[in-house]
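Each record in this resource describes a single protein on a pair of labelled lines. The shape at a given residue is found from the number at the same position. The record below illustrates this layout:

***
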Amino acid sequence: MKRLKLMLETTYSIDAVFALRKTPILISLLFLIILSFMQMTPFAFILIGDAPYRWDQKIWQLTETDQDRFVDSLPVGCGVQSGTLTCSEFAEINLSNGVKVLFNGDVNEVNNGVVFNQDHLVFVEQDRQYEVGYSYFEGVNFDDASYEDIFGRVASSIKPMFVVPFVLGAYQTGVLSTFVFTFVVAALSMLLKFGHTSFLSYKEVLNIVIYSSTFPCVIALVVGMFNVGLTMLIYNIGAPLVAYFVYRRRVIPYLVGNQEQGN
């Protein structure tokens, strides 16, 4: 319970950071995972929106010319009512970068694109096919639909299939990068031992770096909700800065005291 109290206090107390330097490394690594999740949460919130699933913008990079061609080539008399495409007319729309949109066509003819069939649409990405229903297209009339009407709804339709692996992937990447960064900073911090007759062990230095990350992670979480681009910057600068502050204010007096006792 006392250790947990000290962990919470690392958000504002360098004394708590220093006091936790001898914490068992497995406990510290579990704490670091929690911190990693905190700083990656703003990215997760972005992935919950529709923007990351706009393959047409982010992956296929369809141009304005493609968008105009798509709207001009939409089949006449098509719409979606009661989860069913109301026309049986075949239409093929070829766009840039090998992207193809078919109406009532063979999905196996598409490497990247969308196929609108009678009771479902198929999203195709690098020959991988994902079949979804028309829940987001209910009431859409392709005669007067805009480009955004169609591809915005495609993004909403495919999001449920990708959001979980995307979010888990973001957290996994965040944990891995945080671990690498922390271990590297701790290793470089061991260079501070030069000039001292005695110094902290690598485990103690690693713990100090880990618990010095608490305050930067909290700030990164708050700021990241408004500007996710600053999240990693705040953490990457803040964690070593706090650790160095702990070194100057608590570690050096501790080392000097030990040296004096040894004399």
